[in-house]
């Protein structure tokens, strides 16, 4: 005899796990845009800028200019994000804003092939425009999460986005690195030509894998069109601030997110410098970056699965706990007796980062998505963008103060534990009955 209760439960589980065309298309965009952040923002473009566009410029000056360009792009997006999001919440506008920023990013990524030796200003302008396109499109991409899936599946879909983004981004990155290392293999005269080809590959990858998102994902939650959208958007934005108590769980979560994601981002940004300090080569560090991208794939999916079983909040706490362990190992790293042991523990750090960075980012996005009014998703993800962009302020400041006071940088690293403790405490105050599908 068939147990109908068991059959019903299995059927419901299968239905919840199968993905719709909209969900798959949304996930593929993470595959598309992650290529930009890995190849352009992280690995290849900084080297191209230093060695080609800024050739002849003092190293300290070019590094400062690169940092200022990144800071300017992030600051501009952070300031504009809530207003752009408020506009995008009107019926039919979210897709338009997404497409506009996407095309901006792809076009200017292609134009990065133009700068030559000494074209520092042009290179920085094109890079800033491309980065604004990337980051701007992400605001609306994140906001579409509430349109493509339901609260029940939000953790799983968000986790898949990060997971496939990590693994997908390695394909154009590896192809670009092969061309740069073996330019003659593809008929290029020099590594410089191969580097420009890597930029083209990244832009085309970004555009091609965006096509399903453009075609299949639509704005289902919206605010009715207005005759005066600009004026009404400003009024709505002001009303959100006036009624902040009405959205207390969402803004309380953003406060928690600001602290713990600051710790996460600070650790990610300092990882390469740490590797250099303990004597690792450029090849080793690029290998570790690639390994982190690959390992982050299954771990991000694991976080999504476990969140479905034990809850989103516990998994966010678990991610913070892993980063606490990372901080403790990094604190002990300089005092380890041999270079071999330090290298071994650096690899352990890399694996721990890979195990949790995608999961904590994915679950933060989906948890926030369940806290906000769906018809205002772009506006609220604009705020989410602000808190994400202004992260890595407290972390470096804490590290600098602790290092200056104690005279040892390891105590600066240890101070990052404070960010995870504050973030965890604030997260515990978000009502458990809000934004958690399992409760």
From TrEMBL:
Residues of the Major facilitator superfamily (MFS) profile domain: 27-439
GO molecular function per UniProt: transmembrane transporter activity
CDD domains: MFS_YxiO_like
Pfam family, one: ATG22
Classification via InterPro entries: Atg22-like, ATG22/LtaA_families, MFS_dom, MFS_trans_sf
Keywords, comma-separated and alphabetical: Membrane, Transmembrane, Transmembrane helix, Transport
Spans traversing the lipid bilayer: 26-49, 69-90, 97-115, 121-141, 162-181, 193-214, 250-271, 283-303, 315-333, 345-368, 380-402, 408-427
Cell compartment(s), UniProt: Endomembrane system
Membrane topology, from the record: Multi-pass membrane protein
GO CC aspect terms: endomembrane system
UniProt-listed PANTHER family: AUTOPHAGY-RELATED PROTEIN 22
Protein name per the record: MFS superfamily transporter
């Amino acid at each position: 005899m068939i147990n109908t209760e068991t059959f019903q439960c299995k059927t419901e589980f299968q239905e919840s796990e199968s993905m719709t065309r909209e969900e798959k298309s949304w996930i593929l965009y993470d595959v598309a845009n992650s290529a930009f952040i890995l190849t352009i923002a992280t690995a290849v473009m900084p080297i191209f800028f230093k060695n080609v566009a800024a050739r002849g410029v003092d190293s300290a000056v070019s590094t400062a200019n690169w940092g200022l360009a990144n800071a300017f792009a992030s600051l501009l997006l952070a300031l504009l994000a809530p207003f752009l999001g408020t506009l995008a919440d009107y019926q039919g506008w979210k897709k338009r804003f997404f497409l506009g920023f996407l095309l901006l990013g792809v076009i200017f990524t292609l134009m990065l092939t133009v700068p030559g030796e000494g074209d520092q200003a042009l290179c920085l302008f094109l890079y800033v425009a491309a980065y604004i396109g990337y980051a701007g499109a992400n605001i609306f991409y994140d906001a579409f999460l509430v349109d493509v899936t339901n609260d029940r599946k939000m953790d799983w879909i968000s986790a898949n986005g990060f997971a496939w983004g990590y693994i997908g981004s390695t394909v154009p990155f590896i192809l670009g690195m092969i061309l740069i290392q073996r330019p003659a293999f593809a008929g290029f005269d020099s590594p410089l030509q191969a580097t420009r080809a890597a930029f083209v590959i990244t832009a085309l990858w970004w555009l091609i894998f965006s096509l399903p998102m453009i075609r299949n994902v639509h704005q289902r939650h919206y605010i009715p069109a207005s005759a005066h959208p600009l004026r009404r958007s400003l009024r709505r934005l002001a009303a959100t601030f006036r009624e902040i108590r009405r959205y207390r769980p969402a803004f309380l979560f953003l406060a928690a997110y600001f602290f713990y994601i600051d710790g996460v981002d600070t650790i990610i940004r300092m990882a390469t410098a740490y590797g250099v300090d303990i004597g690792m080569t450029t090849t080793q560090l690029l290998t570790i970056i690639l390994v982190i991208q690959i390992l982050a794939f299954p771990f991000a999916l694991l976080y999504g699965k476990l969140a479905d079983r034990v809850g989103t909040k516990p998994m966010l706490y678990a991610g913070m706990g892993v980063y606490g362990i990372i901080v403790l190992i990094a604190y002990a790293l300089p005092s380890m007796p041999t270079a071999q042991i330090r290298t071994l523990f650096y690899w352990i750090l890399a694996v721990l980062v890979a195990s949790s960075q995608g999961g904590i980012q994915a679950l933060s996005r989906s948890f926030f998505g369940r806290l906000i009014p769906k018809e205002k998703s772009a506006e609220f993800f604009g705020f989410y963008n602000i808190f994400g962009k202004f992260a890595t302020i407290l972390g470096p400041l804490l590290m600098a103060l602790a290092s200056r006071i104690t005279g040892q940088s390891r105590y600066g690293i240890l101070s990052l534990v404070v960010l995870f403790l504050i973030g965890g405490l604030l997260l515990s105050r978000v009502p458990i009955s809000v934004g958690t599908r399992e409760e």
